[in-house]
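I am still getting used to backbone structure tokens and would like to learn alongside you. Label the sequence line and the structure token line clearly, so we can match residues to local backbone shapes. Would you write everything just below, so we can both look at the same thing?
***
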Amino acid sequence: MDQEAKKILSILIALGIAGLIYYGSYLPYTKSAALVSTMNYLQSGGGNGTGVTLQDFENSFAALLAIPSPVGQYETIRQLDSTIGSVLANTTNIPEASAVELADFASKYTRPIIDSGTGANYVQNFVNMGDIYREMGDKYHKKEYYDIALQYYQDGLAYSPRRPQFLYGELSIYTSEQDRADSINVAKEIVTYWPADKNTMAILQQLEAAEVSKTPKK
């Protein structure tokens, strides 16, 4: 190999290494650091500590999700979903319209992953979206939100039939709706898979006792 060819080869190798560092280390680090910064900003109540508006929340995550990186996008979207679920579960007096906007914001990023059928830890997306709508059902006592949550859980079960979060999510919804028959069916499935679950066993026994007591005696 002549001297000129060696030079070209050295340049190509150097460019390849630089590319690997940039895409494999620098961009993922930038995204992960931005995620930590965003979560700290939200948890501290915003820049001045007086609270985070809905627009602040959406802008913060939109900017974060716009950062290019070959890895980290799926994880960031799951963090978005779990954060929204936590906000709905632990914050009182959220206007229903704001909760709907948060759910729509989560769906904007999560639904394309679900529809694609691929992605890191793919099935977790069904869990997170189901949990968001289940929290909305609990908070606003509306069947329409429970129905959406159930659809996510049931779609997820098609991929992972023994995923605990789906079954426990379904049980929570059915008991909230006082749907005794479906509650019993799901509770039985849970204790079949996890017989050491004493809490679900107690729920099942209570449900079955109530079912027996309502049966007319001959």
In short: Residues 1-71 form one domain.
